[in-house]
Amino acid sequence: MTSHQTTQTMKPATAAKKLGVYLEATPAEFQEGVVSRSELSTLQTDPPEWLQELRRNGPHPRPVVAAKLGISIAGLARGGVTEPLTTEQIDALKKDLPEWLQKERATQAEVRKEAVRIKEKRDREKDTERGDRPDRSR
Question: What are the CB-based long-range contacts (under 8 Å, 24+) for 110-117?
Fold first, then answer.
């Protein structure tokens, strides 16, 4: 009995998300087809010109815009940014540094600081728990 291995494929939206690009800005043949795991791997390791251009200049999806601005996706929404932005638009926002962006960056910094504090606290608690147990390896 011969087993047939099926090729795993994904929707273009999933592939675009994994590639970090805005689906609507990709070529029509990408949007209308399916992408196999091997095709995705090839796109990641040897991106064609259209993918390089999208990554370089955009338009970028919200997660990429948020990361480039150093804020959360929710922070983008609070700042009124609901559409994909180009690299040029992102750079202009960084240069102009509107009040909402300054506030969101400060909020994000606090969130990161709190996450580090919680992790350190958990690590200390784990160390304490380990210290309370007798060492059975002897």
Answer: 111/72
- Read off the pTM: 0.74
Cβ atoms of 54 and 25 within 8 Å: the answer is yes
pLDDT string in tens for the chain (138-residue length): 555 667 788 999 999 999 999 999 999 999 998 889 989 999 999 999 999 999 999 999 999 999 999 999 999 999 999 999 999 999 999 999 999 999 999 999 999 999 999 999 998 888 888 775 555 554
Element (H, E) at 19: helix 12-19
Please give the helix or strand (H or E) that residue 56 lies within, else none. Answer: helix 49-57
